[in-house]
Amino acid sequence: MVSISAFGAMFTWMMIFVTHYRFRRSRADARSSGPRMIGFPFTTLLGAALMAAVLVTTAFTQAFRLTLAFGLPFLVALTLVYRYRRGGTR
Fold first, then answer.
1. I need a surface site. Which of 23, 32, 70, 76 has the fewest CB within 10 A?
2. Domain residue spans in the chain?
3. Angle at 20 between CA 8 and CA 43, to 5 degrees
4. What is the CA radius of gyration of the chain?
C-alpha cells in the first residue's frame, strides 16, 4: 500500500510539472498579459526531470523497490478502466 501511494504522489507531481509546461507553452501568445514565471521553462523541466529521476531510483533502493513494481501496473489498470468506462478513444 505504501508503494502505491508513494508512486501516486511522485507520479502526480511529475504530471503537474508536465501539465504546467504544456499549459504555459500553449498560452505563449498571451504571455504579455499574464504573470511571468522566473526561470520558465527550465525550472519546470528541471522539476519534471528530478521527479522522474526519483521514480527511477526507487527501483535501486531496497525500501522502495516495490514502488515501480506495483505503481506501473496499477497505473496501467487505471488507464484501462478509464478507457473502458469512457467507451474507447474519442
1. 32
2. 2-27+38-86
3. 95
4. 16
